[in-house]
Design brief:
The complex is a heterodimer. By secondary structure, chain A is mostly helical. Chain A is about 70% helix and about 5% strand. Chain A has 2 domains: about 150 residues, no CATH class; about 80 residues, no CATH class. Chain A is built from 10 helices and 2 strands, in the order αααααββααααα. In chain A, about 20% of the residues are buried. Chain B has 12 helices and 10 strands.
Chain lengths: ~270, ~280
């Protein structure tokens, strides 16, 4: 049952977006977030939506996948909507009951916020849908590499992330085995009160931790045996190389942002 | 030191550091080990659990340093810090559990790990990775995740990861202990092929007699000492001695030995089923 967990949400298909340099994809995602937050007008949402649809189309990711990414944040959406509806008190009053009051301004703001969050999630999940976790790690390492100058352990962080990714399936398998072993000894994992269930996790977690430490030790030895000596002087099999397509994507995102900023300043006049 | 020597141990003593000062003879894991291994040879090191065979293996690529005596890998003393990476590059090590030695989440990235660490240029890494994966017959799986592979396949990937360093010697510490019979066979075939076709020195630590029988030389370690060191057929024909050490012999050897004990004219120096068939035919 635990095996069904999908790792990250990488959706491997062959598309232009998939082939872009992951570093550029991260920067473009940041630009996209800026687009949404550049102003408080509906025009931001319209252009943002156009951008998301464009990327979605190019990436060949099925539309339902985008919708699926919103599901987990549904409670957040409802919460934001209610908060904005109740607490913003501008414009005409549309409806009131005792101390509760819904105004036109509140309605507008909450609609705007919902739209912004939905676009934000769909847009940024395009990054994780089209980029494998390994490439994402590489890109983060490369983008953060200037921080090495201030002694920030960028390479070590990236190595830790990629090893963690590598060991997730292994540890899941191990958890399954331990659960089966404990059940065979009469452990009740699936029923009882909340407190009992939490307690029942202890005989699973402890062997899991012990074995994880043992694995870590063995892995460290194996890495040393293969001449691992930190990030210094290390080369890579797959080097990240920017092509004209990457610069194009950056330019397009930049232009979108510029357009939004110009439109916003025209409207506010 | 001779050109054709891969590994030479000279009166090697080792014990794990303990908190207590009491010096006891029993603390020593390895006692006065002297051993020479030739380049291009295939040596099996046998011994039961706790005999010190894994500890000896760990000395051969400088994970452990002898307390007394010394060990040389291709003429380099493991005691010298500056030799460390040269030694590890020359003598690669494969461990028992394939899951705990695969670093990356894609097969070819993992094979590339060692050359990446050595600072090999990317085009050269690509060549080495491809040829290493071909020589363990895992090239088709280069883009798979390790978790999608069987135990034998994972262990072959681990071997490829070592080959990509272009070592002169590979030390395998019970590489088949966690595998099913098919995986075990895959790994053994790979090891033999590397030894015969690429001339890589193989040191195989094992407690499977059938695997040790494939080697050119068998070294038996018991209680930290080298007890026997000879051709496999000479070692295994000493059936009583092996049993006294808590070790088995290949089934066919045991059969011949039992027949000989029962008064038949058969030599117990038999290692393969084929040899056994021939010898039995001669009998009747």
């Amino acid at each position: 049952m635990l095996k069904d967990i999908t790792l990250g949400q990488y959706f491997p298909v062959d598309s232009v977006i998939h082939k872009l340099d992951p570093r550029f994809k991260i920067i473009n995602t940041l630009l996209f977030i800026m687009m949404l937050f550049a102003g408080n007008h509906a025009v931001n949402l319209v252009i943002g939506a156009v951008f998301v649809i464009l990327v979605q189309g190019l990436s060949k990711i099925p539309f339902q996948m985008g919708i699926k990414s919103i599901k987990p944040i549904f409670p957040v959406l409802v919460f934001t909507a209610i908060l904005n509806l109740v607490f913003i008190d501008t414009g005409e009053t549309l409806w009131s009951w005792k101390f509760l009051k819904i105004t036109e301004g509140g309605l507008q703001t909450s609609a705007f916020m919902i739209g912004r969050i939905i676009l934000l999630i769909i847009g940024s999940s395009m990054l994780t849908y089209t980029t494998s976790p390994i490439l994402l790690t590489d890109a983060i390492e490369s983008l953060l590499s200037p921080l090495k100058k201030v002694k920030f352990p960028v390479h070590e962080m990236a190595m830790m992330m990629s090893i963690a990714l590598r060991f997730i399936p292994t540890l899941i398998e191990e958890t399954d085995k331990i659960m089966a072993a404990q059940k065979a000894r009469g452990a009740m994992l699936d029923n009882g009160k909340l407190l009992d269930r939490v307690k029942a996790m202890i005989p699973i977690l402890i062997p899991l931790f012990v074995s994880a430490f043992r694995r870590a030790e063995e892995l460290a030895t194996a890495m040393e045996c293969r001449c691992y000596q930190g990030g210094e002087g290390r080369t890579r099999l797959r080097e990240l190389k920017a092509t004209w397509k990457d610069y194009c994507s950056l330019t397009v995102c930049g232009l979108f942002l510029l357009l939004i900023m110009i439109l916003n300043s025209i409207i506010s006049y | 030191m001779a050109e054709h020597e891969m590994i030479r141990a000279e009166h090697l003593w080792f014990r794990y550091p303990t908190d207590t000062d009491a010096e006891q003879e029993n603390d020593w894991i390895l006692k006065d080990i002297s051993l020479e291994i030739k380049k291009g040879s295939f040596t099996a090191i046998l011994g039961h659990n706790g005999s010190g065979k894994s500890t000896l293996a760990k000395h051969m690529n400088a994970i452990l340093i002898p307390e007394k005596g010394s060990l040389f890998v291709a003429g380099l003393n493991t005691r010298k810090e500056e030799n460390l990476f040269a030694i590890r590059q020359k003598a690669g090590m494969v461990f028992q559990n394939p899951d705990n030695q695969i670093v990356a989440s894609i097969v070819e990235e993992d094979v590339a790990f060692a050359p990446e660490n050595l600072g090999v240029p990317p085009e050269e890494i690509r060549k080495r990775v491809d040829s290493a994966l071909r020589s363990v017959k895992m090239y088709e799986y280069r883009n798979h995740a390790p978790s999608q592979l069987s135990g034998g396949q994972k262990q072959r990937v681990a071997i490829a990861g070592v080959i990509a360093m272009q070592p002169e010697c590979i030390i395998l510490d019970e590489p088949t202990a966690m595998l099913d019979p098919q995986g075990r066979q895959e790994v053994m075939e790979t090891i033999l092929k590397l030894n015969r076709e690429q001339g890589i020195t193989i040191i195989l630590i094992t407690h499977y007699m059938e695997e040790a029988a494939l080697a050119e030389r068998v070294v038996v370690v018991d209680d930290g000492r080298i007890i026997l060191d000879d051709l496999p057929r000479k070692v295994f024909s000493q059936v009583e001695h092996m049993k006294a050490l808590g070790l088995d012999v290949p089934q066919v050897t045991e059969l011949a030995w039992e027949l000989k004990k029962a008064g038949y004219a058969i030599s117990p120096e038999i290692l393969t089923e084929q040899e056994c068939v021939v010898a039995l035919e001669k009998l009747f």
